[in-house]
Amino acid sequence: MPKRESRDTNNEPAESAKLDESNKEDHNEVSDLIESTFLLKCPPDFYEFYAFCCSVAPDSPLDALYGDTNIRLVGPFEVLHEPKKFKPDDDLTSFYRYFHDPPEVVTVLAADGENPFHVGYFRDNHADQPAFLVSSNPSETGKLTISGENIFTTVLNLLKHPKTKGGSIPVILPKLSEFAKNRRICIGSKVLIKWKSTCETLNGVGVKINLQNGIGYRPVPTTHKELVTILQTLTDTTNANTSKLDELMTLVQFANDEGDFGEGLELGLDLLAFHPAATSTSETFEKANRLNRRITCLLSTGYQLAGQPKFAQVVRRHMENRLKTRRLREVE
């Protein structure tokens, strides 16, 4: 009887190892796709949160929060959910970009409507993972509120203090807490967030400037209160005297020439966050829109000089159609 050839199974990868490797490749492809389309380097909590939503709403994970909060998973989550619908050269940075949003923000949670409450990751460099998440409602303010160091903390806070639905404790709240506990996901307070801006801006978060031997930033020579007064006067009428703002922009040009590009970023972000007093939201936006050309000039130049040309491009596209909030899918 011929001898049987023995198989050295020790040298063959286990089937589970093959699957793990395949899953890893798929994960890396989707991660690269999100980074190329949204300029977002997704942190681990992003994928963990999607896994949670799939566990509680396997047929519609993007709407897992909707019943309790009126909020949907959007933007990068939509790419993660159906990656075959998108290509690496798709530029999706203008989608879910709301009226006052700086390019540092990428929206991942949003209520329905043109200018609703939304939540996004915040990163001062698109090549780095986000430092934290912020929330905002552009119909009410131009300020950004730091909402958590990860998306679990952010959503738990939303569920505990809902902005859109009141009443009893949301059904999904204990499930989310248990999931985070089982996955050993830190659910902390926003006070734990390590973020130190170089200067404050009207959006409340500020901007971080990488100084080189002390060069890169000088402050805008006016207080926020004075600047708001200047901008309110300027936007109240189409024929307003622009000399005070013109003077500030001239000083920015001098600063740029001397390497202190941070002044232009500070002033540009102030203008972007400015929320004029008006009798209606539409009037507020109409007034603020009068600053778009100046915002484009200040921020596109500032980000270019800061070594962030893609942020400059995001600003230019945003200012071209600032009033329109683009969405990737229609919802009923």
Shape: globular
Largest β sheet strand count, sense and barrel closure:
5 strands, antiparallel
Helical content stands at 40-55%
Strand content: 5-15%
Biggest sheet: strand arrangement: 1-2-3-4-5
Structure description:
The chain is an alpha+beta fold and 332 residues long. The protein has twelve helices and five strands. It has helices at 15-38, 44-56, 66-69, 76-81, 151-160, 172-182, 224-235, 243-257, 262-273, 281-288, 292-305, 309-320; strands spanning 71-73, 105-111, 118-122, 132-136, 145-148. It has a five-stranded antiparallel β-sheet with strand order 1-2-3-4-5. A hairpin with a 6-residue loop joins strand 2 (105-111) and strand 3 (118-122). The radius of gyration is 23 Å and the shape is globular.
Element layout with pairings:
Elements: H1 15-38, H2 44-56, H3 66-69, E1 71-73, H4 76-81, E2 105-111, E3 118-122, E4 132-136, E5 145-148, H5 151-160, H6 172-182, H7 224-235, H8 243-257, H9 262-273, H10 281-288, H11 292-305, H12 309-320
Antiparallel strand pairs: 1-2, 2-3, 3-4, 4-5
Helix pairs in contact: 5-6, 8-9, 9-11, 11-12
Write a concise synopsis of the structure shown.
This protein has helices at 15-38, 44-56, 66-69, 76-81, 151-160, 172-182, 224-235, 243-257, 262-273, 281-288, 292-305, 309-320, and strands at residues 71-73, 105-111, 118-122, 132-136, 145-148.
Core attributes:
alpha+beta, disordered N terminus, HPF1, chromosome, nucleus, histone binding
